[in-house]
Amino acid sequence: MRHLLLSRLLLRRSSAPSNHHHHHLPLLRALSSAPSPISSDAELRKYAGYALLLLGCGAATYYSFPFPADALHKKAVPFKYAPLPEDLHAVSNWSGTHEVHTRVLLQPDSIEALQDALAAAHKERRKLRPLGSGLSPNGLALTRAGMVNLALMDKVLDVDVKKKTVTVQAGIRVAELVNALREHGLTLQNFASIREQQVGGFTQVGAHGTGARLPPVDEQVISMKLVTPAKGTIELSKEKDPELFYLARCGLGGLGVVAEVTLQCVERHQLVEHTFVSNADEVKKNHKKWLSENKHIKYLWIPYTDTIVVVQCNPPSKWRTPKLTSKYGKDEALQHVRDLYRQSLKKYRTEAESKDPEIDTLSFTELRDRLLALDPLDKEHVIRINKAEAEYWKKSEGYRMGWSDEILGFDCGGQQWVSEICFPTGSLAKPTMKDLDYMENLLQLIEKEDIPAPAPIEQRWTARSKSPMSPASSSEEDDIFSWVGIIMYLPTSDARQRKEITEEFFSYRSVPKDKDELAELQARLRKRFPVDAYNKARMELDPNKVLSNAKLEKLFPMLEPVHQAK
Ligand SMILES: Cc1cc2nc3c(=O)[nH]c(=O)nc-3n(C[C@H](O)[C@H](O)[C@H](O)COP(=O)(O)OP(=O)(O)OC[C@H]3O[C@@H](n4cnc5c(N)ncnc54)[C@H](O)[C@@H]3O)c2cc1C
Fold this sequence. Notes:
- The protein is of the alpha+beta class.
- Helices cover 35% and strands 20% of the residues.
- The protein has 18 helices and 20 strands.
- It has helices at residues 8-11, 26-32, 41-64, 111-123, 174-182, 199-204, 242-249, 280-293, 330-348, 351-354, 364-374, 379-394, 404-407, 434-448, 495-506, 515-528, 531-541, 550-555; strands at 3-5, 89-92, 99-102, 105-108, 129-131, 147-149, 156-160, 165-169, 186-187, 221-228, 232-237, 257-264, 266-267, 270-278, 296-301, 308-314, 398-403, 416-427, 457-463, 479-489.
- The protein has a seven-stranded antiparallel beta sheet, with helices on both faces.
- One of its GO terms (cellular component) is membrane.
Protein backbone atom coordinates (compact mmCIF):
# COMPACT_ATOMS: atom_id res chain seq x y z
CA MET A 1 0.00 0.00 0.00
CA ARG A 2 1.28 3.43 -0.83
CA HIS A 3 0.29 6.45 1.04
CA LEU A 4 1.77 9.79 1.77
CA LEU A 5 1.61 11.76 4.93
CA LEU A 6 0.34 15.25 4.43
CA SER A 7 2.85 17.95 5.12
CA ARG A 8 1.91 19.94 8.17
CA LEU A 9 1.73 23.08 6.16
CA LEU A 10 -0.51 21.80 3.43
CA LEU A 11 -3.76 21.93 5.31
CA ARG A 12 -2.93 24.30 8.05
CA ARG A 13 -4.41 27.61 7.03
CA SER A 14 -2.31 30.51 7.98
CA SER A 15 -5.14 32.88 7.25
CA ALA A 16 -5.42 34.45 10.64
CA PRO A 17 -6.39 37.99 9.73
CA SER A 18 -3.47 40.32 9.98
CA ASN A 19 -5.25 42.93 11.96
CA HIS A 20 -3.99 45.41 14.40
CA HIS A 21 -5.63 44.69 17.68
CA HIS A 22 -5.30 45.90 21.12
CA HIS A 23 -5.77 43.53 23.96
CA HIS A 24 -8.66 43.81 26.29
CA LEU A 25 -7.24 42.70 29.59
CA PRO A 26 -10.16 41.39 31.61
CA LEU A 27 -7.71 41.12 34.48
CA LEU A 28 -7.47 44.88 34.77
CA ARG A 29 -11.22 45.18 34.90
CA ALA A 30 -11.44 42.53 37.62
CA LEU A 31 -8.85 44.28 39.73
CA SER A 32 -10.45 47.66 39.47
CA SER A 33 -13.89 46.58 40.63
CA ALA A 34 -14.85 48.05 44.00
CA PRO A 35 -13.84 45.94 47.01
CA SER A 36 -16.45 45.13 49.62
CA PRO A 37 -16.06 46.74 53.07
CA ILE A 38 -13.81 44.79 55.45
CA SER A 39 -14.85 44.53 59.09
CA SER A 40 -12.24 42.70 61.21
CA ASP A 41 -8.50 42.04 61.31
CA ALA A 42 -8.97 38.38 60.46
CA GLU A 43 -11.04 39.35 57.50
CA LEU A 44 -8.50 41.98 56.58
CA ARG A 45 -5.76 39.31 56.53
CA LYS A 46 -8.03 36.99 54.55
CA TYR A 47 -8.73 39.66 51.94
CA ALA A 48 -5.07 40.72 51.87
CA GLY A 49 -4.25 37.05 51.19
CA TYR A 50 -6.85 36.94 48.42
CA ALA A 51 -5.53 40.15 46.94
CA LEU A 52 -2.00 38.76 46.96
CA LEU A 53 -3.18 35.55 45.37
CA LEU A 54 -5.09 37.47 42.75
CA LEU A 55 -2.12 39.70 42.03
CA GLY A 56 0.14 36.65 41.86
CA CYS A 57 -2.22 34.94 39.43
CA GLY A 58 -2.59 38.17 37.54
CA ALA A 59 1.16 38.60 37.23
CA ALA A 60 1.57 34.96 36.22
CA THR A 61 -1.16 35.29 33.60
CA TYR A 62 0.20 38.58 32.39
CA TYR A 63 3.76 37.40 32.01
CA SER A 64 2.84 34.06 30.56
CA PHE A 65 1.33 35.91 27.59
CA PRO A 66 3.67 37.63 25.21
CA PHE A 67 2.16 41.08 25.74
CA PRO A 68 4.54 43.96 26.37
CA ALA A 69 3.54 46.79 28.68
CA ASP A 70 2.56 49.03 25.77
CA ALA A 71 0.61 46.27 24.06
CA LEU A 72 -2.28 48.60 23.37
CA HIS A 73 -0.32 50.16 20.57
CA LYS A 74 1.29 47.07 19.16
CA LYS A 75 0.07 44.48 16.76
CA ALA A 76 -1.42 41.42 18.35
CA VAL A 77 1.02 38.58 18.77
CA PRO A 78 -0.84 35.49 17.65
CA PHE A 79 -1.08 32.81 20.26
CA LYS A 80 1.79 30.46 19.58
CA TYR A 81 1.74 26.72 20.00
CA ALA A 82 4.84 24.90 21.11
CA PRO A 83 6.61 23.39 18.10
CA LEU A 84 5.04 20.11 17.11
CA PRO A 85 6.94 16.86 16.86
CA GLU A 86 7.79 16.02 13.27
CA ASP A 87 5.13 13.34 12.83
CA LEU A 88 2.28 15.39 14.26
CA HIS A 89 0.00 17.22 11.83
CA ALA A 90 -2.04 20.22 12.85
CA VAL A 91 -5.27 20.36 10.86
CA SER A 92 -7.70 23.19 11.32
CA ASN A 93 -10.84 24.30 9.52
CA TRP A 94 -10.98 27.45 7.41
CA SER A 95 -12.10 29.69 10.26
CA GLY A 96 -9.60 28.28 12.71
CA THR A 97 -12.43 27.40 15.09
CA HIS A 98 -11.62 23.69 15.20
CA GLU A 99 -8.18 22.19 15.20
CA VAL A 100 -6.78 18.74 15.82
CA HIS A 101 -3.27 17.38 16.05
CA THR A 102 -2.99 13.94 14.60
CA ARG A 103 -0.32 11.42 13.77
CA VAL A 104 -2.47 9.71 11.15
CA LEU A 105 -3.26 11.70 8.04
CA LEU A 106 -3.17 9.41 5.04
CA GLN A 107 -3.17 10.54 1.44
CA PRO A 108 -3.67 7.57 -0.84
CA ASP A 109 -3.00 8.17 -4.51
CA SER A 110 -5.23 5.44 -5.92
CA ILE A 111 -8.49 3.73 -5.17
CA GLU A 112 -6.55 0.52 -4.38
CA ALA A 113 -4.42 2.34 -1.80
CA LEU A 114 -7.56 3.84 -0.30
CA GLN A 115 -9.21 0.42 -0.15
CA ASP A 116 -6.16 -1.07 1.58
CA ALA A 117 -6.03 1.75 4.09
CA LEU A 118 -9.69 1.36 5.01
CA ALA A 119 -9.52 -2.44 5.17
CA ALA A 120 -6.52 -2.23 7.51
CA ALA A 121 -8.22 0.37 9.69
CA HIS A 122 -11.32 -1.83 9.83
CA LYS A 123 -9.30 -4.87 10.85
CA GLU A 124 -7.34 -2.99 13.49
CA ARG A 125 -10.35 -0.95 14.61
CA ARG A 126 -8.58 2.33 13.95
CA LYS A 127 -10.19 5.61 12.93
CA LEU A 128 -9.84 6.92 9.39
CA ARG A 129 -12.30 9.73 8.86
CA PRO A 130 -12.57 11.29 5.41
CA LEU A 131 -11.33 14.87 5.31
CA GLY A 132 -11.86 17.13 2.29
CA SER A 133 -10.54 20.69 2.21
CA GLY A 134 -11.56 21.04 5.84
CA LEU A 135 -13.76 24.06 5.17
CA SER A 136 -16.79 23.02 7.19
CA PRO A 137 -17.38 25.68 9.81
CA ASN A 138 -18.24 23.01 12.39
CA GLY A 139 -15.08 21.00 11.77
CA LEU A 140 -17.26 18.05 10.82
CA ALA A 141 -14.42 16.14 9.16
CA LEU A 142 -11.90 16.41 11.95
CA THR A 143 -10.76 13.81 14.43
CA ARG A 144 -7.48 13.40 16.23
CA ALA A 145 -7.67 9.63 15.95
CA GLY A 146 -6.93 9.58 12.20
CA MET A 147 -8.05 10.96 8.86
CA VAL A 148 -7.76 10.21 5.16
CA ASN A 149 -7.61 12.93 2.56
CA LEU A 150 -7.96 12.56 -1.21
CA ALA A 151 -5.89 15.55 -2.34
CA LEU A 152 -3.77 13.17 -4.45
CA MET A 153 -6.85 11.67 -6.07
CA ASP A 154 -7.90 14.72 -8.01
CA LYS A 155 -8.14 13.65 -11.64
CA VAL A 156 -10.89 14.23 -14.14
CA LEU A 157 -11.56 10.68 -15.38
CA ASP A 158 -14.14 11.23 -18.09
CA VAL A 159 -16.22 13.97 -19.67
CA ASP A 160 -19.30 13.01 -21.66
CA VAL A 161 -20.14 16.15 -23.60
CA LYS A 162 -23.32 14.70 -25.05
CA LYS A 163 -24.79 13.75 -21.70
CA LYS A 164 -23.11 16.75 -20.05
CA THR A 165 -21.63 14.58 -17.31
CA VAL A 166 -18.20 14.42 -15.73
CA THR A 167 -16.57 11.63 -13.72
CA VAL A 168 -13.89 12.74 -11.28
CA GLN A 169 -11.83 11.45 -8.42
CA ALA A 170 -13.48 12.97 -5.37
CA GLY A 171 -10.34 14.79 -4.18
CA ILE A 172 -10.56 17.34 -7.00
CA ARG A 173 -11.39 20.83 -5.85
CA VAL A 174 -14.47 22.53 -7.23
CA ALA A 175 -12.38 25.36 -8.75
CA GLU A 176 -10.12 22.87 -10.58
CA LEU A 177 -13.10 20.91 -11.82
CA VAL A 178 -14.69 24.06 -13.22
CA ASN A 179 -11.44 24.95 -14.98
CA ALA A 180 -11.27 21.47 -16.50
CA LEU A 181 -14.90 21.61 -17.65
CA ARG A 182 -14.42 24.96 -19.36
CA GLU A 183 -12.79 23.52 -22.51
CA HIS A 184 -15.75 21.17 -22.90
CA GLY A 185 -18.22 24.03 -22.71
CA LEU A 186 -19.61 22.72 -19.42
CA THR A 187 -19.89 23.86 -15.83
CA LEU A 188 -21.63 22.91 -12.57
CA GLN A 189 -25.25 23.85 -12.16
CA ASN A 190 -24.68 25.90 -9.01
CA PHE A 191 -21.96 26.93 -6.57
CA ALA A 192 -21.44 27.67 -2.91
CA SER A 193 -19.84 31.01 -2.03
CA ILE A 194 -16.32 29.68 -2.43
CA ARG A 195 -14.92 26.97 -4.68
CA GLU A 196 -12.15 25.46 -2.59
CA GLN A 197 -14.09 22.39 -1.46
CA GLN A 198 -13.14 18.93 -2.63
CA VAL A 199 -15.96 17.39 -4.62
CA GLY A 200 -16.23 14.68 -1.92
CA GLY A 201 -16.84 17.22 0.88
CA PHE A 202 -18.97 19.45 -1.35
CA THR A 203 -21.48 16.68 -2.07
CA GLN A 204 -21.28 14.80 1.25
CA VAL A 205 -22.66 17.80 3.16
CA GLY A 206 -25.17 18.70 0.44
CA ALA A 207 -23.66 22.15 -0.12
CA HIS A 208 -25.91 24.74 -1.73
CA GLY A 209 -25.96 28.00 -3.59
CA THR A 210 -29.14 29.89 -4.27
CA GLY A 211 -32.05 29.59 -6.71
CA ALA A 212 -35.48 28.26 -5.79
CA ARG A 213 -35.51 26.00 -8.84
CA LEU A 214 -32.00 24.67 -8.25
CA PRO A 215 -31.37 21.87 -5.74
CA PRO A 216 -28.38 21.53 -3.41
CA VAL A 217 -25.30 20.05 -5.10
CA ASP A 218 -25.72 16.43 -3.91
CA GLU A 219 -28.65 16.26 -6.33
CA GLN A 220 -26.17 16.46 -9.23
CA VAL A 221 -24.51 13.19 -8.21
CA ILE A 222 -25.51 10.54 -10.75
CA SER A 223 -23.32 7.72 -9.49
CA MET A 224 -20.36 7.18 -7.21
CA LYS A 225 -17.78 4.73 -6.00
CA LEU A 226 -17.89 4.46 -2.25
CA VAL A 227 -14.97 2.77 -0.52
CA THR A 228 -16.14 1.26 2.76
CA PRO A 229 -14.26 -0.31 5.65
CA ALA A 230 -16.30 -3.54 5.80
CA LYS A 231 -17.62 -4.04 2.27
CA GLY A 232 -14.82 -2.74 0.07
CA THR A 233 -15.74 -0.59 -2.93
CA ILE A 234 -19.42 -0.27 -3.83
CA GLU A 235 -20.75 1.33 -6.97
CA LEU A 236 -23.94 3.24 -6.34
CA SER A 237 -26.49 4.91 -8.58
CA LYS A 238 -30.25 5.25 -8.68
CA GLU A 239 -30.30 2.01 -10.71
CA LYS A 240 -27.82 0.14 -8.49
CA ASP A 241 -29.07 0.09 -4.88
CA PRO A 242 -31.10 3.31 -4.99
CA GLU A 243 -31.81 3.37 -1.26
CA LEU A 244 -28.16 3.34 -0.30
CA PHE A 245 -27.29 5.65 -3.21
CA TYR A 246 -29.58 8.43 -1.99
CA LEU A 247 -28.53 7.92 1.62
CA ALA A 248 -24.81 7.96 0.81
CA ARG A 249 -24.98 10.91 -1.61
CA CYS A 250 -25.21 13.24 1.34
CA GLY A 251 -23.71 10.87 3.93
CA LEU A 252 -21.60 13.26 6.06
CA GLY A 253 -18.57 11.04 5.52
CA GLY A 254 -20.13 8.35 7.70
CA LEU A 255 -20.91 5.65 5.15
CA GLY A 256 -17.71 5.40 3.16
CA VAL A 257 -15.05 7.44 1.47
CA VAL A 258 -16.33 8.72 -1.86
CA ALA A 259 -13.52 7.91 -4.27
CA GLU A 260 -15.16 8.73 -7.59
CA VAL A 261 -18.24 10.69 -8.54
CA THR A 262 -20.16 11.24 -11.75
CA LEU A 263 -21.88 14.62 -11.75
CA GLN A 264 -24.53 16.08 -13.98
CA CYS A 265 -23.23 19.33 -15.47
CA VAL A 266 -24.87 22.09 -17.45
CA GLU A 267 -23.71 24.12 -20.41
CA ARG A 268 -21.22 26.81 -19.52
CA HIS A 269 -23.15 30.06 -19.34
CA GLN A 270 -22.95 33.68 -18.46
CA LEU A 271 -25.07 35.48 -15.92
CA VAL A 272 -26.06 39.07 -15.40
CA GLU A 273 -26.00 39.97 -11.75
CA HIS A 274 -28.27 42.77 -10.59
CA THR A 275 -27.59 44.16 -7.13
CA PHE A 276 -29.91 46.67 -5.54
CA VAL A 277 -30.95 47.86 -2.14
CA SER A 278 -34.47 47.26 -0.92
CA ASN A 279 -36.46 47.26 2.32
CA ALA A 280 -38.83 44.91 4.15
CA ASP A 281 -42.03 46.33 2.62
CA GLU A 282 -40.77 46.17 -0.93
CA VAL A 283 -39.37 42.67 -0.42
CA LYS A 284 -42.66 41.45 1.06
CA LYS A 285 -44.56 42.83 -1.90
CA ASN A 286 -42.30 41.28 -4.52
CA HIS A 287 -40.99 38.17 -2.82
CA LYS A 288 -43.20 35.61 -4.53
CA LYS A 289 -42.58 37.09 -7.96
CA TRP A 290 -38.83 37.50 -7.44
CA LEU A 291 -38.37 33.95 -6.17
CA SER A 292 -40.10 32.58 -9.19
CA GLU A 293 -38.69 34.89 -11.85
CA ASN A 294 -35.03 34.85 -10.96
CA LYS A 295 -32.73 31.94 -11.60
CA HIS A 296 -30.61 32.87 -8.57
CA ILE A 297 -31.71 35.27 -5.87
CA LYS A 298 -30.49 36.06 -2.40
CA TYR A 299 -31.13 38.66 0.26
CA LEU A 300 -28.44 40.15 2.44
CA TRP A 301 -30.14 41.45 5.58
CA ILE A 302 -28.33 44.16 7.48
CA PRO A 303 -29.25 44.13 11.19
CA TYR A 304 -30.27 47.42 12.82
CA THR A 305 -31.04 48.98 9.44
CA ASP A 306 -34.04 48.62 7.15
CA THR A 307 -31.71 47.68 4.31
CA ILE A 308 -31.98 44.41 2.45
CA VAL A 309 -29.55 43.94 -0.39
CA VAL A 310 -31.16 41.96 -3.19
CA VAL A 311 -28.89 40.08 -5.59
CA GLN A 312 -30.50 38.52 -8.65
CA CYS A 313 -28.64 36.56 -11.33
CA ASN A 314 -30.11 35.60 -14.66
CA PRO A 315 -29.01 34.55 -18.12
CA PRO A 316 -28.27 37.64 -20.25
CA SER A 317 -31.09 37.00 -22.69
CA LYS A 318 -33.59 37.91 -20.02
CA TRP A 319 -32.26 41.42 -19.82
CA ARG A 320 -32.47 43.74 -22.75
CA THR A 321 -29.18 45.54 -22.44
CA PRO A 322 -28.60 46.55 -18.86
CA LYS A 323 -25.99 49.21 -18.42
CA LEU A 324 -23.12 47.16 -17.06
CA THR A 325 -21.80 49.84 -14.77
CA SER A 326 -22.52 51.14 -11.31
CA LYS A 327 -23.33 54.76 -10.67
CA TYR A 328 -20.36 55.05 -8.34
CA GLY A 329 -16.78 53.91 -8.85
CA LYS A 330 -15.20 51.46 -6.42
CA ASP A 331 -13.38 54.25 -4.56
CA GLU A 332 -16.52 56.33 -4.19
CA ALA A 333 -18.45 53.34 -2.85
CA LEU A 334 -15.73 52.70 -0.27
CA GLN A 335 -14.80 56.21 0.77
CA HIS A 336 -17.22 56.54 3.70
CA VAL A 337 -16.13 53.12 5.01
CA ARG A 338 -12.49 54.20 4.90
CA ASP A 339 -13.47 57.40 6.69
CA LEU A 340 -15.25 55.43 9.40
CA TYR A 341 -12.20 53.21 9.81
CA ARG A 342 -9.90 56.21 10.09
CA GLN A 343 -12.14 57.87 12.68
CA SER A 344 -12.40 54.63 14.62
CA LEU A 345 -8.64 54.17 14.57
CA LYS A 346 -8.29 57.62 16.09
CA LYS A 347 -10.75 56.64 18.79
CA TYR A 348 -9.47 53.16 19.57
CA ARG A 349 -5.82 53.40 18.56
CA THR A 350 -3.66 56.31 17.52
CA GLU A 351 -3.80 59.24 15.15
CA ALA A 352 -0.72 57.83 13.40
CA GLU A 353 -2.44 54.54 12.59
CA SER A 354 -5.39 56.39 11.10
CA LYS A 355 -3.02 57.91 8.53
CA ASP A 356 -1.78 54.56 7.20
CA PRO A 357 -2.02 54.80 3.38
CA GLU A 358 -2.61 51.03 3.22
CA ILE A 359 -6.20 51.74 4.26
CA ASP A 360 -6.92 52.94 0.73
CA THR A 361 -5.96 49.56 -0.70
CA LEU A 362 -8.33 47.49 1.43
CA SER A 363 -11.44 45.83 0.02
CA PHE A 364 -14.81 46.31 1.64
CA THR A 365 -14.69 42.99 3.50
CA GLU A 366 -11.17 43.71 4.73
CA LEU A 367 -12.28 47.10 6.00
CA ARG A 368 -15.29 45.53 7.72
CA ASP A 369 -13.08 42.93 9.37
CA ARG A 370 -10.66 45.56 10.62
CA LEU A 371 -13.43 47.81 11.83
CA LEU A 372 -15.08 44.99 13.72
CA ALA A 373 -11.75 43.94 15.24
CA LEU A 374 -11.54 47.30 17.03
CA ASP A 375 -14.51 46.49 19.26
CA PRO A 376 -16.43 43.44 17.98
CA LEU A 377 -18.88 43.17 20.86
CA ASP A 378 -19.82 46.81 21.19
CA LYS A 379 -23.32 47.09 19.78
CA GLU A 380 -23.08 50.79 18.87
CA HIS A 381 -19.80 50.22 17.07
CA VAL A 382 -21.27 47.28 15.14
CA ILE A 383 -24.35 49.34 14.22
CA ARG A 384 -22.11 52.07 12.80
CA ILE A 385 -20.36 49.44 10.68
CA ASN A 386 -23.68 47.96 9.55
CA LYS A 387 -24.91 51.40 8.50
CA ALA A 388 -21.70 51.93 6.54
CA GLU A 389 -22.28 48.56 4.91
CA ALA A 390 -25.82 49.55 3.92
CA GLU A 391 -24.48 52.69 2.29
CA TYR A 392 -21.70 50.74 0.60
CA TRP A 393 -24.28 48.46 -1.04
CA LYS A 394 -26.42 51.43 -2.00
CA LYS A 395 -23.41 52.86 -3.81
CA SER A 396 -22.67 49.47 -5.35
CA GLU A 397 -26.05 49.08 -6.99
CA GLY A 398 -25.87 48.03 -10.61
CA TYR A 399 -25.28 45.21 -13.04
CA ARG A 400 -22.31 43.08 -13.90
CA MET A 401 -21.94 40.16 -16.24
CA GLY A 402 -19.63 37.16 -16.21
CA TRP A 403 -19.36 33.37 -16.28
CA SER A 404 -21.63 31.71 -13.76
CA ASP A 405 -18.83 30.31 -11.58
CA GLU A 406 -17.33 33.79 -11.16
CA ILE A 407 -20.61 35.62 -10.66
CA LEU A 408 -22.02 33.16 -8.14
CA GLY A 409 -19.04 33.35 -5.80
CA PHE A 410 -19.31 35.63 -2.80
CA ASP A 411 -16.66 37.19 -0.62
CA CYS A 412 -17.86 36.09 2.82
CA GLY A 413 -15.22 38.08 4.66
CA GLY A 414 -12.71 36.63 7.08
CA GLN A 415 -12.81 33.88 9.67
CA GLN A 416 -16.17 33.48 11.30
CA TRP A 417 -18.57 31.37 13.30
CA VAL A 418 -21.55 30.29 11.23
CA SER A 419 -24.94 29.08 12.26
CA GLU A 420 -27.02 28.06 9.29
CA ILE A 421 -30.61 26.93 9.29
CA CYS A 422 -32.59 25.38 6.45
CA PHE A 423 -36.37 25.09 6.50
CA PRO A 424 -39.23 24.41 4.07
CA THR A 425 -41.11 27.44 2.84
CA GLY A 426 -43.86 26.04 0.63
CA SER A 427 -43.55 25.82 -3.12
CA LEU A 428 -42.94 28.35 -5.85
CA ALA A 429 -46.63 28.31 -6.72
CA LYS A 430 -47.60 28.61 -3.06
CA PRO A 431 -44.84 30.05 -0.91
CA THR A 432 -45.72 30.08 2.79
CA MET A 433 -43.72 33.29 3.38
CA LYS A 434 -42.26 31.57 6.47
CA ASP A 435 -38.86 32.65 5.17
CA LEU A 436 -39.70 36.33 5.57
CA ASP A 437 -41.45 35.74 8.91
CA TYR A 438 -38.34 34.00 10.15
CA MET A 439 -36.17 36.96 9.23
CA GLU A 440 -38.56 39.44 10.81
CA ASN A 441 -38.47 37.51 14.08
CA LEU A 442 -34.73 37.06 13.92
CA LEU A 443 -34.06 40.77 13.41
CA GLN A 444 -36.48 41.68 16.18
CA LEU A 445 -34.75 39.25 18.53
CA ILE A 446 -31.38 40.73 17.66
CA GLU A 447 -32.63 44.22 18.53
CA LYS A 448 -34.51 43.13 21.64
CA GLU A 449 -31.51 41.32 23.04
CA ASP A 450 -29.02 44.03 22.03
CA ILE A 451 -26.92 41.54 20.10
CA PRO A 452 -23.92 43.11 18.35
CA ALA A 453 -24.89 41.32 15.13
CA PRO A 454 -22.75 42.14 12.11
CA ALA A 455 -23.91 42.06 8.50
CA PRO A 456 -24.92 40.42 6.36
CA ILE A 457 -27.34 37.71 7.35
CA GLU A 458 -27.53 35.85 4.09
CA GLN A 459 -30.82 34.28 2.99
CA ARG A 460 -30.92 31.88 0.07
CA TRP A 461 -33.26 29.30 -1.46
CA THR A 462 -33.03 25.92 -3.11
CA ALA A 463 -35.31 23.31 -4.55
CA ARG A 464 -35.59 20.02 -2.69
CA SER A 465 -33.04 17.20 -2.65
CA LYS A 466 -33.89 13.52 -2.89
CA SER A 467 -31.05 12.66 -0.48
CA PRO A 468 -32.81 11.84 2.81
CA MET A 469 -29.96 13.19 4.94
CA SER A 470 -30.06 16.59 3.23
CA PRO A 471 -31.69 19.38 5.27
CA ALA A 472 -33.63 20.16 2.08
CA SER A 473 -34.84 16.61 1.68
CA SER A 474 -38.43 16.20 0.55
CA SER A 475 -40.57 13.76 -1.36
CA GLU A 476 -42.48 16.67 -2.93
CA GLU A 477 -40.86 17.81 -6.12
CA ASP A 478 -42.14 21.38 -5.84
CA ASP A 479 -41.02 22.06 -2.28
CA ILE A 480 -38.63 24.91 -1.79
CA PHE A 481 -36.29 25.57 1.13
CA SER A 482 -34.80 28.68 2.61
CA TRP A 483 -31.27 28.72 4.03
CA VAL A 484 -30.32 31.46 6.48
CA GLY A 485 -26.69 31.92 7.45
CA ILE A 486 -26.01 33.85 10.65
CA ILE A 487 -22.41 34.75 11.19
CA MET A 488 -20.19 36.26 13.81
CA TYR A 489 -16.81 37.31 12.50
CA LEU A 490 -13.61 36.38 14.26
CA PRO A 491 -11.58 39.31 12.93
CA THR A 492 -8.72 38.81 15.32
CA SER A 493 -5.97 36.37 16.16
CA ASP A 494 -6.05 37.39 19.81
CA ALA A 495 -7.08 34.19 21.60
CA ARG A 496 -8.95 36.01 24.34
CA GLN A 497 -10.93 38.21 21.99
CA ARG A 498 -11.84 35.15 19.92
CA LYS A 499 -13.03 33.46 23.09
CA GLU A 500 -15.21 36.43 24.02
CA ILE A 501 -16.77 36.54 20.57
CA THR A 502 -17.29 32.78 20.63
CA GLU A 503 -19.02 32.90 24.00
CA GLU A 504 -21.32 35.69 22.84
CA PHE A 505 -22.22 33.73 19.71
CA PHE A 506 -22.69 30.44 21.48
CA SER A 507 -25.15 31.88 23.94
CA TYR A 508 -27.54 32.08 20.96
CA ARG A 509 -26.76 28.73 19.41
CA SER A 510 -28.62 25.75 20.69
CA VAL A 511 -25.52 23.73 21.37
CA PRO A 512 -26.42 21.15 24.01
CA LYS A 513 -24.93 22.01 27.37
CA ASP A 514 -25.76 18.78 29.18
CA LYS A 515 -27.03 15.25 28.66
CA ASP A 516 -30.70 16.23 28.64
CA GLU A 517 -30.19 18.92 26.03
CA LEU A 518 -28.19 16.49 23.90
CA ALA A 519 -31.00 13.93 24.15
CA GLU A 520 -33.43 16.64 23.04
CA LEU A 521 -31.29 17.50 20.05
CA GLN A 522 -30.96 13.84 19.11
CA ALA A 523 -34.73 13.45 19.31
CA ARG A 524 -35.18 16.48 17.03
CA LEU A 525 -32.72 15.08 14.51
CA ARG A 526 -34.51 11.73 14.63
CA LYS A 527 -37.79 13.45 13.72
CA ARG A 528 -36.27 15.23 10.77
CA PHE A 529 -33.77 12.72 9.38
CA PRO A 530 -33.93 8.95 8.84
CA VAL A 531 -31.43 8.31 11.61
CA ASP A 532 -32.25 4.61 11.92
CA ALA A 533 -31.74 3.98 8.22
CA TYR A 534 -28.50 5.97 8.35
CA ASN A 535 -27.24 4.04 11.36
CA LYS A 536 -28.26 0.73 9.84
CA ALA A 537 -26.19 1.50 6.75
CA ARG A 538 -23.30 2.65 8.94
CA MET A 539 -23.45 -0.61 10.86
CA GLU A 540 -23.31 -2.65 7.67
CA LEU A 541 -20.61 -0.68 5.93
CA ASP A 542 -18.59 0.40 8.94
CA PRO A 543 -19.41 -1.66 12.04
CA ASN A 544 -16.15 -0.66 13.73
CA LYS A 545 -16.89 3.05 13.31
CA VAL A 546 -13.69 3.64 11.42
CA LEU A 547 -15.24 6.63 9.60
CA SER A 548 -16.86 8.19 12.62
CA ASN A 549 -15.87 10.97 14.97
CA ALA A 550 -17.24 12.30 18.25
CA LYS A 551 -19.56 14.74 16.48
CA LEU A 552 -21.20 12.05 14.37
CA GLU A 553 -21.55 9.78 17.40
CA LYS A 554 -23.20 12.54 19.39
CA LEU A 555 -25.64 13.52 16.68
CA PHE A 556 -26.50 10.03 15.48
CA PRO A 557 -25.82 7.65 18.36
CA MET A 558 -26.39 4.01 17.64
CA LEU A 559 -28.74 3.55 20.58
CA GLU A 560 -30.53 0.40 19.60
CA PRO A 561 -28.92 -2.73 18.25
CA VAL A 562 -29.14 -1.61 14.68
CA HIS A 563 -30.55 -4.84 13.23
CA GLN A 564 -33.85 -3.98 14.97
CA ALA A 565 -34.18 -0.77 13.08
CA LYS A 566 -35.91 -0.78 9.77
C1 LIG B 1 -15.89 30.90 3.38
C2 LIG B 1 -16.82 29.73 3.26
C3 LIG B 1 -17.97 29.86 2.50
C4 LIG B 1 -18.84 28.79 2.38
N1 LIG B 1 -19.97 28.95 1.64
C5 LIG B 1 -20.83 27.94 1.55
C6 LIG B 1 -22.02 28.07 0.78
O1 LIG B 1 -22.26 29.10 0.18
N2 LIG B 1 -22.87 27.02 0.72
C7 LIG B 1 -22.60 25.84 1.36
O2 LIG B 1 -23.39 24.91 1.26
N3 LIG B 1 -21.49 25.69 2.08
C8 LIG B 1 -20.61 26.70 2.19
N4 LIG B 1 -19.46 26.52 2.92
C9 LIG B 1 -19.24 25.22 3.55
C10 LIG B 1 -18.54 24.23 2.61
O3 LIG B 1 -19.05 24.29 1.32
C11 LIG B 1 -18.83 22.82 3.11
O4 LIG B 1 -18.44 22.73 4.44
C12 LIG B 1 -18.11 21.72 2.31
O5 LIG B 1 -18.40 20.48 2.82
C13 LIG B 1 -16.67 21.83 2.44
O6 LIG B 1 -16.02 20.85 1.64
P1 LIG B 1 -14.64 20.30 2.15
O7 LIG B 1 -13.99 19.60 1.02
O8 LIG B 1 -13.89 21.37 2.82
O9 LIG B 1 -15.16 19.23 3.21
P2 LIG B 1 -14.71 19.00 4.74
O10 LIG B 1 -15.11 20.19 5.52
O11 LIG B 1 -13.31 18.56 4.81
O12 LIG B 1 -15.66 17.77 5.08
C14 LIG B 1 -17.05 17.90 5.10
C15 LIG B 1 -17.70 16.54 5.28
O13 LIG B 1 -17.51 15.76 4.12
C16 LIG B 1 -16.88 14.53 4.44
N5 LIG B 1 -15.99 14.21 3.32
C17 LIG B 1 -15.04 14.99 2.75
N6 LIG B 1 -14.49 14.35 1.70
C18 LIG B 1 -15.11 13.15 1.62
C19 LIG B 1 -14.98 12.02 0.77
N7 LIG B 1 -14.12 11.98 -0.25
N8 LIG B 1 -15.76 10.95 1.00
C20 LIG B 1 -16.66 10.94 2.01
N9 LIG B 1 -16.81 11.97 2.85
C21 LIG B 1 -16.05 13.06 2.65
C22 LIG B 1 -16.17 14.77 5.75
O14 LIG B 1 -16.02 13.58 6.48
C23 LIG B 1 -17.14 15.72 6.43
O15 LIG B 1 -18.17 15.00 7.01
C24 LIG B 1 -18.56 27.56 3.04
C25 LIG B 1 -17.40 27.43 3.79
C26 LIG B 1 -16.53 28.51 3.91
C27 LIG B 1 -15.29 28.35 4.72
